[in-house]
């Protein structure tokens, strides 16, 4: 029960870490496009950014689940083979003779696992930010964009656009035949129509 309470106490810190990672990813992505995204983000955008990233990139969820499963499999294999040389090298001077020793070792491995997951998430979010930013930049330069939306603004002219991102206050997009990124407040767009799924 104490173990569960400890995990519940760490959840807010984990979410705060995810928010920082979401901000880092968005900042890196938009920096490559010449935009300071923090100037265009509300507190709500910042708070939901990690959830939005995970919902839009199933690879994040798959990688996180895979790392957790691999950690537990590694633990099981390590404990079952504690008598072998490779296991003894990994464990160092720590000996597993009883069930209590196993429980103690499991508790000691939790911080190592937390650091490993934190580092993995950091690398993943930074990699996604760099990769997406470079990809969008290259596609804008070569005009190799799939114009996936049609907007009607207050001027009532339908325009095909490539939507880079949307937050609670702004649309970030490139119009067909243009290489400049436009930032439009949500209130200036009358309708947004999906014309080509990503």
UniProtKB/TrEMBL annotation:
Top-level taxon of origin: Bacteria
Key words, A-Z: Membrane, Transmembrane, Transmembrane helix
The protein's name: Uncharacterized protein
Species name: Chryseobacterium polytrichastri
The keyword Membrane appears for this protein: yes
Sequence intervals crossing the membrane: 15-38, 59-79, 109-130
